[in-house]
Amino acid sequence: MDEIDCSRKDGDVEIRHPTHPGQYTEFGTEELRAHYLVEDLFAPGEIRTVYTHQDRMVLGGAVPRPGTALELSAEPPLRSEYFCERRELGVIALGGGSVTADGEEYELAHRDCLYVGRGTRSVSFSSDEGARFYLVSAPAHTEYPTRVARHADTTPAELGDPATANVRGLRKYVHPEGIHSCQLVMGITELAEGSVWNTMPCHTHDRRTECYLYVDLPPEHRVIHLLGRPDETRHLVVRNEQAVISPSWSVHSGAGTHRYGFVWAMAGENQDFGDMDHVAIDELR
Ligand SMILES: O=C(O)C(=O)C[C@H](O)C(=O)CO
Ligand SMILES: [Zn+2]
């Protein structure tokens, strides 16, 4: 296959084009990574963003230096005056810091979530503790209030079993019974010590794109993330704080060489968490 331009830049934003489920089977390791893996979202003193045409989600990382706030701007691909002019934004703090939205400061502890509604003109990030902020945005048709969900106040759904090495707690932050949004559904799943599998048995969801950001993985460890159609899977070897974009036709599951957690975020046709196309383990190939 000819080399393809799968991650061009527009301004400072990396652009990812959608792929057809017939294409990825022809991809080698580098093309798989260039299409589906987001490797370097977090850099000191920068806000980095990746615009995927999969449900037009934007993934980002903001890493403010102590004493200097970083302001989120509307980069050229958005063709808008300010970032949230037509978009909503979910933020997960990785470390303690604050987000200021239209002059209101929200203090976030590690793993807290801030939802920023459409129409918010200014959003900035600051931290004296070296926090990283993970950003996920989707187009929004109306305005919902900006709100915080605290990790400490959210009761996780307990999933999995020690016998299948997939004991994990799933916290929902942005969802129809929690923080209201137009499209975004977002939360965090944390594996128990000794568990390594996420989202197995796995699923696709034909009506949404889903992105995972892996966290809590020591530098020398990796997650083997499964993607592709259930009957023809491929894998990505993923480091800590790297993200994976899963098209609607792709499974999204993984096993780590160590316990870890991951931020999951979806956008698309509906917000029904249970709207999954389940795949039995014996259907996987
Ligand atoms: O551990 C899990 O299972 C998950 O966290 C699943 C994701 O939330 C997901 O894929 C939702 O569609
Ligand atoms: Zn899913």
How would you describe the overall organization of this protein?
With 285 residues, this protein is mainly beta. The protein has two domains: 9-27 and 39-151, pectin degrading enzyme 5-keto 4- deoxyuronate isomerase, domain 1 (Jelly Rolls); 155-283, Jelly Rolls (Sandwich), CATH 2.60.120. It has one helix and 25 strands. The protein has one helix at 29-36; strands spanning 9-10, 13-16, 37-38, 47-52, 58-62, 70-71, 87-94, 97-101, 104-108, 113-116, 123-126, 132-139, 147-149, 157-159, 168-174, 185-191, 197-198, 203-204, 208-215, 223-229, 232-238, 243-246, 253-256, 261-268, 277-278. A hairpin with a 2-residue loop joins strand 1 (9-10) and strand 2 (13-16). It comes from Actinopolyspora alba. One of its GO terms (molecular function) is 4-deoxy-L-threo-5-hexosulose-uronate ketol-isomerase activity. Keywords: Isomerase, Metal-binding, Zinc.
